[in-house]
Design brief:
About 40% of the residues lie in helices and about 20% in strands. The chain has three domains: about 200 residues, P-loop containing nucleotide triphosphate hydrolases (Rossmann fold, 3-Layer(aba) Sandwich), CATH 3.40.50.300; about 160 residues, Rossmann fold (3-Layer(aba) Sandwich), CATH 3.40.50.300; about 80 residues, Valyl-tRNA synthetase, C-terminal domain (Helix Hairpins, Orthogonal Bundle), CATH 1.10.287.380. The protein starts with 6 loop residues before the first strand and ends with a helix. The relative contact order is 0.09. The radius of gyration is 29 Å and the shape is globular. Helix 7 runs antiparallel to helix 8 and helix 16 runs antiparallel to helix 18. By secondary structure, the protein is an alpha/beta fold.
Length: about 600
């Protein structure tokens, strides 16, 4: 005999303004169930979790909770108001608390590497998330409701949380964008789509095929209904005047068909994410040689070297505080290394998307964020109406004039992407871009970045996203070492092997089998030929730029091919050769300039 549910919802309805968020939702949670709650950004997942937790916000419907069942929630943004210390906040979840020194609190804080005496107001995003997790877990509730639990967590903590939930005796519902996390933990899926919840009693890995089958069947049914409406409308136009009384019933039926079609809301569209390409950068985008950085007594990065080429997609991973953002800022020239040098390639035009969403004023509207007081925004060199552009990122018309603070986390992240990716660039820098984004938007972002003609630098803890996108992974271990591995996160795990005890300086594992260049001995000179090349190469690069500009101008003439096909072919061939010569010259100049600086500092 099946056990009664711990939690159940019946006919739950909720509207926000003129939008229906939940439309007769029915679901139940049995003891020990492992559920993932899936849905688009703004579909109402967080709202549904709040109703499950007992908040009386539903317009109608009933919630049942088994008497004595303990339910704990991890919200996206925890509220620390009224709590002087971390331990005090965590302890507040215990009905039988022994105070801030409770052994259960102390043990969990120790596992999560948290100081219970700290004030919550000074916590970083990752620390605040770990504290909120500790509060949700400490009472060992019968039902855990976790809203984006992996946001702001580093990979070691995500793996710890996975192990903890895998051994969990109670039930849980996970809302997460992290596919690997859901695949490893969820055994059934709740799909919130257009106000209703469907259930799949299989793992998350089966969700995409299952949901696509449902959408295809719905599309077929809508097509059949549309054809029926067309036929009945045609009949009505021809026949109703002649046979008004006899056919009024059929006309009423047509009205019902139209009403049914209006109510049959189609699936929400997909976001359109494109990147704006600027002038092509040089073949060698970034060169770093033996760069180091310390903050006080702590060495964050120690003698790291790398060469990053155009169209490379580089992922940076490591524990929180290991120095990922510091290394990223040094690589793009925002932060000077203490030792070593960084050289940026020619014509680099970067766009930076940071995890703090500092570009979004919460009191401004999406319209103002994108276009200020104008009606149009410049997108990839073309004027677009701001509403048209916002619709591409799945914003409703009414949201354009609402303050940013009313948007969900995923919607804010989409707005940040819309603002940043409208600008032309050939280097995109993303610091935790996947937080709060739904799976479809993540797919589109990954596809846009994969097709991008420039270079991508990415800090992320999303293992699936890294595996799908990056060409190499720089792993920072937290002790100053940074090592580059070919491939994504899974490739890094395979190649890393046993952790090395040695604290030797880390260097890039080159994409070729060539050995890394040895540092030049002290007081060594470049030599006459290298000095001359260093002086002449800028002139050569300027000449090639001018020649390529002239060739591009000539090839832009639409009549050239018809008028002079041989000349068109010759100019096209020369343009490709000039680009190759320019790439080679830029690479040689960068290497010579780096070598000169090394010799200068060594002497």
């Amino acid at each position: 005999m099946a056990e009664p549910p711990l939690l159940a919802l019946q006919d739950i309805r909720f509207r926000l303004g003129d939008q229906t968020i939940l439309d007769g939702v029915e679901l139940s949670i049995a003891p020990g169930e492992r559920l993932s709650l899936i849905g688009r950004n703004g579909a109402g997942k967080s709202t549904l979790l709040r109703i499950l937790a007992g908040e009386p916000i539903a317009d109608s419907g009933t919630r049942f909770a088994q008497p004595g069942a303990v339910v704990a929630t991890l919200p996206q943004e925890p509220d620390f108001t009224g709590h002087e210390t971390v331990a005090h906040y965590v302890t507040s979840a215990l009905a039988d608390s022994l105070g801030p020194s409770d052994y259960r609190v102390a043990a969990l804080l120790d596992e999560l590497k948290l100081d219970g005496t700290r004030a919550p107001s000074g916590l970083s995003g990752g620390e605040a998330r770990r504290v909120a997790l500790a509060r949700a877990l400490v009472a060992e509730p019968d039902v855990l409701l976790l809203d984006e639990p992996t946001n702001h967590l580093d990979l070691p903590t995500i793996e710890w949380l996975e192990a903890t939930l895998a051994a969990w005796k109670g039930a849980y519902v996970l809302v997460s964008h992290d596919r690997r996390f859901l695949t490893n933990l969820a055994r059934a899926v709740l799909w919130l789509d257009r106000g209703i919840v469907r259930r799949l009693d299989r793992g998350y890995a089966e969700f995409e095929t299952w949901s696509n089958d449902i959408l295809e069947r719905e599309a077929t049914e809508r097509h059949k209904l549309d054809r029926l409406i067309e036929r009945e409308t045609e009949w009505a136009g021809k026949s109703i005047r002649a046979r008004r009384t006899r056919n009024e019933g059929r006309l009423r039926a047509l009205g019902e068909l139209r009403k049914q079609r209006r109510q049959q809301i189609g699936p929400v569209g997909r976001a359109v994410i494109e990147t704006g390409s600027a002038e092509q950068s040089g073949a060698l985008a970034i060169t770093a040689r033996n760069i180091s950085k310390s903050w006080g007594d702590k060495t964050v990065v120690r003698e790291f070297s790398t060469r990053i080429f155009r169209r490379d997609r580089i992922g940076l991973i490591g524990p929180n505080g290991a120095g990922k953002t510091t290394l990223l800022r040094m690589l793009i020239g925002e932060l000077e290394p203490d030792t070593g040098s960084v050289k940026l390639g020619a014509n680099l035009i970067p766009v930076v998307i940071d995890q703090r969403r500092t570009a979004l004023d919460p009191d401004k509207t999406p319209w103002e964020i994108l276009a200020d007081r104008n009606d149009h925004v410049l997108v990839r060199g073309q004027q677009r109406h701001v509403m048209t552009y916002l619709r591409e990122y799945l914003f409703r018309d009414e949201q354009a004039r609402q303050p940013v603070r009313t948007l969900s986390g995923g919607e804010r992240n989409r707005l940040l992407l819309a603002k940043a990716l409208a600008a032309p660039s050939n280097l995109i820098v993303l610091d935790e871009p996947t937080n709060d984004l739904d799976a479809d938007t993540l797919d589109l972002l990954q596809e846009a970045l994969a097709d991008y003609d420039g270079t991508v630098l990415l800090v992320s803890h999303d293992r699936d996203f890294l595996d799908r996108l990056v060409t190499s992974t720089i792993a920072l271990e937290g002790d100053g070492t940074a090592i580059e591995y070919a491939g994504g996160y899974s490739d890094y795990l395979f190649q890393r092997g046993p952790r090395e005890v040695s604290a030797a300086p880390a260097v890039r594992r080159e994409k070729t089998t060539a050995a890394p260049r040895e540092a030049a001995p002290a007081k060594q000179r470049l030599g006459y030929k290298r000095e001359r090349a260093l002086a002449e190469l800028p002139k050569k690069m300027d000449a090639l730029h001018a020649e390529m500009a002239a060739l591009n101008e000539a090839l832009a003439d639409p009549a050239l091919y018809t008028r002079d096909p041989k000349g068109f072919a010759a100019k096209t061939t020369r343009l490709g050769a000039a680009q190759a010569e320019l790439d080679a010259a830029e690479t040689e100049w960068l290497e010579l300039e780096m070598l000169r600086e090394e010799l200068k500092s060594a002497g």
